[in-house]
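FAQ

Q: What does a record look like?
A: Structure on top, sequence underneath. For example:
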């Protein structure tokens, strides 16, 4: 049981680390999708910068949540075994 808990925690750390590197290196602030010039053009009622940023970070954030939950499951399993 302790070995399973250890492997779950290590897997969770790995998944979280991959997601953290993806978030750190995968998003460039000078990308045109994340730059707003502050102008409203005909047919455009609002900025799309924040929705684009959230949409592009969705999978990396899901990996962080998955890694954290694996670490938590490993900790709970280690505590009760």
């Amino acid at each position: 049981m302790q070995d399973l808990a250890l492997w779950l925690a290590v897997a969770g750390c790995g998944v979280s680390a991959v997601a953290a590197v993806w978030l750190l290196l995968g998003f460039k602030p000078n990308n045109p999708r994340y730059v707003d010039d502050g102008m409203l053009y005909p047919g455009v009622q609002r900025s799309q910068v924040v929705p684009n940023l959230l949409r592009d970070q969705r999978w990396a954030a899901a990996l962080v949540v998955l890694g954290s939950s694996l670490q938590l499951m490993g900790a709970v399993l280690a505590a009760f075994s």
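Q: Is there anything notable about this one?
A: The mean pLDDT is 85.
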